[in-house]
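Section 3.1: Structural characterization of target chains.
Under the original work plan, the team committed to producing a structural model for every single-chain target entering the pipeline before any wet-lab resources were allocated. The record below documents one such target. The sequence was received from the expression subgroup and is listed exactly as submitted; it comprises 292 residues.
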Amino acid sequence: MADLLFMPDVLRDEGLPVREVPNWRTRGHGAMGEILGVLMHHTAGAATGDGRLADFVVPGYPSLGIVTNGRPGLDGPLCNLGLARDGTWVVVANGQAWHAGTGFAAWCGRDNGNAHLIGIEAESVGTRDDWTSQQRESYPRGVAALLRHLGLGSYRAIGHREWAPTRKVDPAFWDMNSFRADVARWTSTPAPLAPVPAPQPTEDEAMFIRYQPDPSKAPIIAVLTGSMFVGLGGGAETASALAAIKNGAVVLDVGAATWHELDKRSHALCDNPRPVEVVTPISAQAQTGASA
């Protein structure tokens, strides 16, 4: 038995927007078997509107209620994932969904798609080409992310009309060979890396001073870069550290790398205070580690 709990994280790691329908982790007609591929559909739903389940709303996905709860004669869920018109992925069910019906693929077998294929219902009326540019990118890109995670090739992405050619046409107005070519392109493209925060300078790397213009208030930290103080701490404090020094503020201590710079430049700095830009001050650790 398998599960699809990986779906939202894999899609988000690909940089795609994701919404999770409440209780999706426990929704399904029994557990999935081995995941062998992805089966693509269109909803044949309304041309406009949003989807709503109580307080849960997905803009541009009016088929939300049907794919989650089903329709007369066919209980939901009817897919594992949905795709809204703005390219947002909608996570519907972790277990089997009634989406495949009778059909065949050589690598999957006959009539067992619900147990082995991730079913995706993308919002489209199906009678005309109303795919949005966001869907045109997000659909193959999301499928590629899923297949990459599963270690499967792009040929494991098939349309419902390929699974059941005598009775289905979806996803309409989308050439499946072109779709798979896009999937292959995205599959070979690693997921984008999360941005890495810039490292905080250490005490020895950052030049800073701690000064106290008002003895009744907490000291202020200023970071020195080259010949300018460009960052001030102390919350809303925005006055120039140079001007404060020029006006007689008491310098309590400085960072280890600052001494030489202050020795060289103190007179010039105090005689020529310059405008400063407020930036994030050095870390609290560097502040408390300063030596007098």
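The two ends are 65 Å apart (CA to CA).
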